[in-house]
């Protein structure tokens, strides 16, 4: 990585050839801000007049410190590196990595390193900050490095990884933003993580008491120990016991741990400036003016080492702004630094946290609106001006979907709506309130990392940017922290549409149509195969996006078996083999257990089959029994036995109806008012096999106690004294959404008619892999529109929708029974076409009395390697 | 169908053409190696003659032997297979992974000899 401008060990800086036609510029520091400064200089053509040298202490190329923790989740140093590897070389900038600048000789205008001296005309100090380790008595660092770890550089992370091996528990001192990041890193390394914070709450700089409390509860729920209001007084090595160290707190409590990681804030790295006599703030930091100039007019300071009007900015965006200021001063026009917005939104340990502007309401006369969700540990606070007209700040914990809009209100001084509380109150429909792209002024900041305004986006569109990728290259928007991605896309699409340009919503490179359009083409032209559609409306070979989508459309329209030769190459592996692929390449088998009702005889068969083929069995959340670990060539035999016993495929592999969950209903339950099991069976058997854009789940509850959790499903049915209530477009999973009440007290025939129409309308109009909940949000006119179509037949579609559903119902066939009856189809179920053995790499071990895939260290070849090495 | 490997000849018979699946993959075992065989009956341009590609069946990202069960397609005209587990794309011609060019599947020289799929020496 040092290969860009390597300086041979015997070469001294004094012997470097200096271009006498150019002025000399030296940048000390190759972090994010130093790097941005170089990029800005190059972009402004500064290399014409300047010969530039960059010095970096670290051996690595500049890297993304904001996403440092991804180093533990798979990214390597190269993946985190900033900019093109040859940026310096191709622009004639000399990059000296691993070379420390020891002093600045202001009298002679030279920097001093172990390699010699180098003259400068101008100097930029971008040395950043160092992690503050409070002076807590503890063991000698040289013998106990694991009691004094920090979290700042790639080398720090390597040290943490090294000491985490074999450790069981880790404690982070500091409950700020970086401390929580660090706790997440310890967790991802498999340690039990704890956070110790001196202040009475987490993230004391960004959050108020209630926000800190909500965050704490969410983080504790993730298994991270939180200890606030705790001052660490000593760290003592333990000779015996479970852990290596004991941390003593001022209140007499203690906590044992194997390693201690300090993340208790940063201190400006100002030593070079201090030593050469530049003005330094009382609590550190090289004093700069609005042009980022220090007390020496030839020297600039930027980023976290610089002190502007008594403030140190610990975020990357202000550092970038300073870098642009200096690049401007050295080249064309200086845009003075005028402070920076410290608003921030993060996902810490998977929890959304946002802080905007005056989050604590310290502005005179400021008033707050607060939304507290004690059940869900959510918190939102909106701080508005005394006259109630403008947003001053906000705090968000648990849901950042409100962030973008609030930030736009705050940054652009947009007038508040009549009811400001609506901006933070939960929205029954359609998620957090959004500010239309047209409401934003041209000066509205879209990407604060790269200083890109709405006006700049408009200009780029005017100059011909036609897709997001090009826009990102042109403006650099959304290439910093990435927090503005959604807003950028919204503004971009709005700009295209307002210019009458069609927004490219192509399914993929092979079809310039949306799923809805392809659906219409297939139906209207009666297209029967992928090949035919590709000939008429696409090009190329297709891909893993369009093939399964079109396979699904063909299956819904014509109900052709997915295993028919013309369809087989379209399916992803789950549909191809009618089973769900698991991580080791084996499959799980899930027969239909409609409504969760099963006879003892069938239960026995499932157990016998699982035993015979050595399958792991688990009862699923959808009231079925999943058999895991079958190899490809075992699937037909397993299914033959299941089908003989009266089972049929459960479509667990398909984007289709999965289950209809039910409670026990009035047959057994003393509260039930209708027979929910019978209704669940009727629904499941009616819609089984229907191919849909995304998987569909249903639930039927026999009374309002809602034991089937029907309101968390795409279609929920709840019995009433007078009939059924129908709910639609709910969603469990990652983004839960409550279903909405669609019709009340309807009889069984009406219920089924509505569901027929609803499902077919969804199938016809939804996008690829769009859940009913997301589809519902995309429908203009919302639930009322849906009611008008389904109940009032506003579009006159219902006869057609019902007919089409009836066709699907009438032509249902168990896909497994179909395949088992056809020797040609069964040929696909071979692990190897030229050998009858199974995959020798599939190795199981036994856990809790059942087989499961061996983990890497449990596999025989890894043992063999250990023995031989 | 099991076909014994031919001895003392230059090529190894892997399977018969009707063991292949049009526009999709199957897996053959050859001396302990798992080869994913992809059959494009009308070639990469859907116009010309049949083409067969053989790549390692081992998916370096998941560690499972599943490449032969991926979907075939093209990216910018280059024929690829998508891993069925985490969906990375591998070029059929040289095995290079588009998302991570440092990962590369071995490509084996195969061709049709009459009705047989053979591995070149």
Model description:
The complex is a heterodimer of chains A (869) and B (121). Chain A is an alpha/beta fold. Chain A has 6 domains: 13-128 and 269-330, FAD/NAD(P)-binding domain, CATH 3.50.50; 132-266, FAD/NAD(P)-binding domain, CATH 3.50.50; 341-427, FAD/NAD-linked reductase, C-terminal dimerisation domain (Enolase-like, domain 1, 2-Layer Sandwich); 436-501, Arc Repressor Mutant, subunit A; 505-554, no CATH class; 580-811, Sulfite Reductase Hemoprotein, domain 1 (2-Layer Sandwich), CATH 3.30.413. Chain A contains 28 helices and 38 strands. In chain A, the strands form 11 sheets. Chain A has a 5-stranded parallel beta sheet with strand order 3-2-1-7-19, with no helix packed on it. Chain A has a 5-stranded parallel beta sheet with strand order 9-16-10-11-12. In chain A, strands 21-22-25-24-23 form a 5-stranded antiparallel beta sheet. Chain A is globular and about 95 Å long. Chain B is mostly beta strands and 121 residues long. Chain B has strands spanning 12-16, 24-30, 33-40, 51-56, 71-75, 78-82, 89-91, 107-108, 110-113, 116-119. Chain B has a 4-stranded antiparallel beta sheet with strand order 2-3-4-8, with no helix packed on it. In chain B, strands 1-10-9 form a 3-stranded antiparallel beta sheet, with no helix packed on it. Chain B has one domain (12-119): Rieske [2Fe-2S] iron-sulphur domain (Rieske Iron-sulfur Protein, 3-layer Sandwich), CATH 2.102.10.10. Chains A and B meet through helix 15 and helix 17 of A and strand 2, strand 3, strand 5 and strand 6 of B.
């Amino acid at each position: 990585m040092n290969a860009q401008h390597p300086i041979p060990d015997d070469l001294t800086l004094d012997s470097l050839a200096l271009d006498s036609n150019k002025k000399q510029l030296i940048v000390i520091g190759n972090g994010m801000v130093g790097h941005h400064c170089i990029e800005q200089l190059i972009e402004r053509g500064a290399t014409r007049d300047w010969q530039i040298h960059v010095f970096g202490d670290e051996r690595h190329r500049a890297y993304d410190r904001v996403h440092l923790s991804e180093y533990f989740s798979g990214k390597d140093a190269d993946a985190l590196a900033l900019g093109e590897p040859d940026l310096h070389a191709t622009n004639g900038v000399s990059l000296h990595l691993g070379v420390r600048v020891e002093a600045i000789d202001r009298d002679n205008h030279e920097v001093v390193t172990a390699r010699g001296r180098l003259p400068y005309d101008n100097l930029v100090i971008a040395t950043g900050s160092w992690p503050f380790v409070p002076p807590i008595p503890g063991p000698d660092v040289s013998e106990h490095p694991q009691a004094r770890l920090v979290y700042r550089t790639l080398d720090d992370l390597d040290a943490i990884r090294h000491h985490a091996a074999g450790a069981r528990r880790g404690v982070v001192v500091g409950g700020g933003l970086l401390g929580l990041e660090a706790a997440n890193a310890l967790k991802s390394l498999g340690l039990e993580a704890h956070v110790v914070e001196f202040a009475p709450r987490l993230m004391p700089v960004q959050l108020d008491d209630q926000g800190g409390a909500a965050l704490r509860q969410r983080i504790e729920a993730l298994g991270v120990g939180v200890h606030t209001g705790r001052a660490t007084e000593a760290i003592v090595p333990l000779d015996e016991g479970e852990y290596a160290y004991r941390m003593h707190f001022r209140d007499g409590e203690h906590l044992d741990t194997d390693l201690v990681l300090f993340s208790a804030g940063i201190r400006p790295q100002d030593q070079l400036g201090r030593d050469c006599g530049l003005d330094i703030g009382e609590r550190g930091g090289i004093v700069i003016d609005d042009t980022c100039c220090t007390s020496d007019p030839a020297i600039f300071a930027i980023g976290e080492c610089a002190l502007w009007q008594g403030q140190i900015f610990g975020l990357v965006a202000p550092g970038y702004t300073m870098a642009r200021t200096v690049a401007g001063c050295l080249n064309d026009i200086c845009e003075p630094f005028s402070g920076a917005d410290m608003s921030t939104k993060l996902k810490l340990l998977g929890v959304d946290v946002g802080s905007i502007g005056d989050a604590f309401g310290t502005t005179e006369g400021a008033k707050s609106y607060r939304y507290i969700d004690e059940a869900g540990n959510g918190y939102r606070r909106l701080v508005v001006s005394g006259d109630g007209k403008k947003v001053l700040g906000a705090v968000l914990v648990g849901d950042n979907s409100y962030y973008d809009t609030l930030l736009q209100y705050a940054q652009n001084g947009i007038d508040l709506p009549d009811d400001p509380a609506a901006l933070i109150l939960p929205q029954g429909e359609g998620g957090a309130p959004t500010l239309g792209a047209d409401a934003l002024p041209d000066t509205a900041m879209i990407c604060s990392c790269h200083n890109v305004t709405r006006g700049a986006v408009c200009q780029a569109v005017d100059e011909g940017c036609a897709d997001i990728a090009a826009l990102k290259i042109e403006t650099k928007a959304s290439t910093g922290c990435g927090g503005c991605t959604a807003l950028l896309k919204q503004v971009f699409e709005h700009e295209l549409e307002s210019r009458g340009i069609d927004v490219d919503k192509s399914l993929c490179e092979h079809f310039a149509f949306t799923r809805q359009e392809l659906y219409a083409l297939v139906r209207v032209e009666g297209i029967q195969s992928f090949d035919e559609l590709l000939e008429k409306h696409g090009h190329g070979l297709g891909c893993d996006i369009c093939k399964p989508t079109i396979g699904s459309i063909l299956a819904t329209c014509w109900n052709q078996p997915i295993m028919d030769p013309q369809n087989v190459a379209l399916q992803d592996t789950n549909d191809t083999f009618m089973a769900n692929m698991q991580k080791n390449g084996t499959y799980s088998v899930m027969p239909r257990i409609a409504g969760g009702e099963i006879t003892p005889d069938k239960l026995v068969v499932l157990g016998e089959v699982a035993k015979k083929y050595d399958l792991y069995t688990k009862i699923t959340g959808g009231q079925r029994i999943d058999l895991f670990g079958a190899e490809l060539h075992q699937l037909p035999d397993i299914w033959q036995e299941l089908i003989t016993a009266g089972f049929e495929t459960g479509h667990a592999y398909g984007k289709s109806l999965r289950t209809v969950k039910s409670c026990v209903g009035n047959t057994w339950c003393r509260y039930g008012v209708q027979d929910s099991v019978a209704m669940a069976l009727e629904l499941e058997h009616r819609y089984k096999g229907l191919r849909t854009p995304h998987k569909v789940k249903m639930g039927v509850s026999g009374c309002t106690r809602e034991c089937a959790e029907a309101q968390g499903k795409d279609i929920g049915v709840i019995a009433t004294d007078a009939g059924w209530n129908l709910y639609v477009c709910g969603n469990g999973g990652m983004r839960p959404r409550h279903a909405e009440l669609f019709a009340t007290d309807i009889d069984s025939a009406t219920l089924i008619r509505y569901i027929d129409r609803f499902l077919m309308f969804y199938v016809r109009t939804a996008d690829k892999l769009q859940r009913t909940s997301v589809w519902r949000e995309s429908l203009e006119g919302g639930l009322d529109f849906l009611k008008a179509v389904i109940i009032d037949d506003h579009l006159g579609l219902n006869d057609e929708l019902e007919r089409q559903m009836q066709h699907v119902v009438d032509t249902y066939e168990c896909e497994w029974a179909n395949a088992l009856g056809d020797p040609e189809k069964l040929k696909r179920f071979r692990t190897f076409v030229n050998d009858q053995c199974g995959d020798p790499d599939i190795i199981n071990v036994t856990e809790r009395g059942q087989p499961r895939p061996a983990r890497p260290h449990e596999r025989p070849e890894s043992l063999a390697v250990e023995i031989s090495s | 169908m099991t076909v014994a490997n031919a001895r003392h000849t230059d090529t190894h018979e892997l399977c018969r053409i009707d063991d292949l699946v049009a526009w999709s993959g199957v897996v053959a075992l050859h001396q302990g190696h798992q080869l994913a065989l992809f059959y494009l009956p009308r070639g990469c341009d859907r116009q010309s003659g049949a083409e067969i590609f053989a790549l390692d069946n081992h998916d370096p990202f998941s560690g499972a032997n599943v490449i032969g069960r991926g979907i075939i397609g093209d990216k910018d005209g280059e024929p690829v297979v998508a891993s069925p587990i985490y969906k990375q794309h591998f070029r059929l011609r040289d095995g290079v992974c588009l998302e991570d060019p440092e990962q590369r599947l071995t490509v084996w020289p195969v061709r049709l000899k009459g009705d047989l799929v053979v591995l070149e020496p």
